[in-house]
Write a structure and sequence with these properties.
The complex is a heterodimer. Chain A is α+β, with helices and mostly antiparallel strands. Chain A has 7 helices and 7 strands; from the N terminus they run αααβαββαββααββ. The longest helix of chain A is centred in the N-terminal third of the chain and has 66 residues. By secondary structure, chain B is α/β, with parallel strands linked by helices. Chain B is built from 8 helices and 12 strands. The termini of chain B are far apart. Classes of the chains: A alpha+beta, B alpha/beta. Chains A and B meet through α2 and α3 of A and α1 of B.
Chain lengths: 323, 235
């Protein structure tokens, strides 16, 4: 729980302690192995009898020592990974607590106000609109948590033909409405129709998450370019390019990980749970596709690219099942 | 008309609170982050805006609420702070109170409770300031001025937070008698007497720094093992 500076630095200290002890153990074991090998080899070189046997023992000893070191390295790596996940998980709890409790607190405040005060009709309408916003936010967070659980490690079982281009354009319209943006914030380029096989609901969730991020991490003006195209080897590409806050190279490696968020939770400047991109990745993986992110650096925008196999070259008969 | 500064980055919550406090007759301003709050509260170079109370959210962009409270206290500002946060665990509450907050409310809260807490804080401030006797006291060499939240001792002036002033006043009112930790928690912190916290001990140590010539060998503010604390005005 990163609520405080001291607690956070405590957790950090513990993390560094684990890593330092692990690395120290590895160094000591390597030093011991090398020392033993040098001593052993020089002794065998001086020996007069049973030389072959000594070499055999030496050989197996070396193998066992190597296994020991490999095992140690493996354990330390797993430990570091576990510590990192743990850190992200407590950040997640903190973020979800905030994301769930803030709209609930706001809804409760407005409900109490409506019950407690005599209000003009105009004021009442205004409060209803505010409560709608809070409900939408709550709904989005709940969906995020549920989707993350639903799409983790799951392959699409029943892939249906769908029009990816149409699905993306529909998602753009939804995002524009949701964030009450002027329609020219998004520029759509590329195919008018692109049939692929996939799970329309899951893909729409993923695309909406990408578009939502593009808006959320934009600076004052939202300017997002969305491209849908296909390449020769039967793959569809979706590219979302924004001119928002971007990120440094160090973060790029981690952003698709579950619960990962840039920056400390208690000082968070943008809402979220750290699940959005994880859901994108899970959905794309479920379609045996890939997702990647690029950013020239902080404040220089970012580009997310999804590649999906399963393009249908000739549209099949019947109605496409795009959402 | 009491002036309240609401420090809250969630626009809907800030707007809702502002609306209600204005109906109750308060003069309300809103700051969306810690830096803006500090600027308005300390208002360097300009006449201070003179807030009577701060409602401070913990999770803020940039600088969190704990840091705002600590900075404010360091800058010598002792405006009462009501801390608001989504985290309502005992350790979060204690951390807020030790860091300079005077009261604490977990989100989501009941509107009547919020209004009552604010009223209570303002009343407690009046109580500590002079609403209840005494308005001033002398503890050995130290002069306590409850009206200005100050202790003058050894040629120095120490500022008291609301909680420090309330604790000291409670002890002065009961000078010569043992006051239990439970009673202090109930009357000063407004929490259940069996709350497990080191807050009282920390505050007693802080008070000793103001009134004792040698805080390690207290002559006035004594710990009575297993019973509580006792203030002796003349050693």
């Amino acid at each position: 729980m990163p609520a405080s500076g001291s607690q956070l630095s405590g957790a950090k200290r513990r993390k560094w302690l684990h890593i330092t002890v692990g690395v120290a153990l590895i160094v000591v074991t390597v030093a011991l192995t090398v020392g033993w090998q040098i001593l052993g080899a020089s002794e065998i070189a001086r020996a007069r009898e049973a030389v072959t046997l000594r070499w055999v023992v030496y050989f197996f000893g070396t193998v066992l020592f190597s296994l020991l070191i490999a095992g140690l390295v493996l354990i330390v790596t797993l430990l570091v990974r576990e510590v990192r996940l743990n850190e992200r998980q407590s950040n997640f709890v903190s973020a979800v607590t905030h994301e769930l409790k803030t709209p609930v607190a706001s809804l409760k405040l407005y409900l109490d106000t409506l019950q407690l005060r005599e209000l003009s009709d105009g004021r009442r309408e205004e409060f209803y609109r505010t409560m709608q916003q809070d409900l939408q936010r709550l709904h989005a967070t709940i969906n995020n948590v549920l989707n993350a659980a639903m799409y983790t490690d799951r392959h699409v079982v029943d892939a249906q033909p769908l029009d990816l281009a149409k699905l993306v354009r529909h998602s753009i319209d939804l995002t524009v409405t949701r964030h009450q943006l002027p329609p020219d914030c998004f520029r759509y380029e590329g195919a008018q129709e692109l049939m692929i096989r996939g799970d329309a609901t899951a893909l729409e969730t993923a695309v909406l998450n990408l578009l939502d991020n593009a808006v959320k991490y934009s600076k004052d003006k939202v300017e997002v370019r969305v491209e849908v195209s296909r390449n020769g080897d039967g793959q569809a590409h979706l590219r979302v390019h924004d001119r928002g806050v971007g990120m440094s190279r160090a973060h790029l490696r981690f952003i698709f990980k579950r619960f990962y968020r840039i920056g400390r939770e208690v000082r968070r400047s943008r809402t979220g749970t750290g699940l959005g991109l994880f859901i994108v990745k899970s959905v794309v993986k479920g379609h045996r596709g890939t997702v990647s992110a690029e950013s020239p650096g902080p404040d220089l925008g970012s580009t997310f690219t999804i590649t999906l196999p399963g393009v249908i070259e000739e549209p099949e008969g019947g109605q496409p099942a795009a959402s | 008309m009491p002036r309240i500064l609401i420090v809250e980055d969630e626009a809907n919550l800030a707007k809702g609170m502002q609306f209600n406090f204005e109906i109750e007759g308060y003069d309300v301003a809103v700051a969306a982050d810690g830096a803006e709050a500090l600027k308005r509260l300390t208002s360097k170079g300009q006449p201070p805006e003179g807030f009577d109370l701060v409602i401070l959210d913990v999770m803020l962009p940039g600088m969190d609420g704990y840091a705002v409270a600590e900075r404010l206290r360091e800058a010598g500002d002792f405006t009462p702070i009501l801390m608001l946060t989504a985290k309502g665990r005992p350790e979060d509450i204690v951390r807020g109170l030790e860091g300079g907050a005077d009261d604490y409310l977990a989100k989501p809260f009941e509107l009547p409770v919020l209004l009552a807490r604010v009223k209570g804080l303002l009343r407690r401030r009046e109580w500590a300031r002079g609403g209840a006797e005494p308005a001033a006291a002398r503890v050995g060499e130290a002069e306590v001025d409850f009206g200005n939240f100050e202790v003058r001792a050894r040629g120095q002036t120490f500022h008291l937070t609301l909680l420090e002033a309330m604790l000291l006043k409670l002890l002065v009112q009961n000078a010569g008698r043992v006051v239990s930790k439970g009673e202090i928690l109930e009357k000063v912190w407004n929490v259940s007497p069996d709350t497990a916290t080191r807050a009282v001990d920390n505050f007693i140590m802080r008070l000793r720094k103001y009134i004792e010539a040698d805080p390690r060998l207290p002559k006035h503010l004594h710990t009575v093992r297993g019973a509580g604390y006792k203030l002796v005005l003349e050693a």
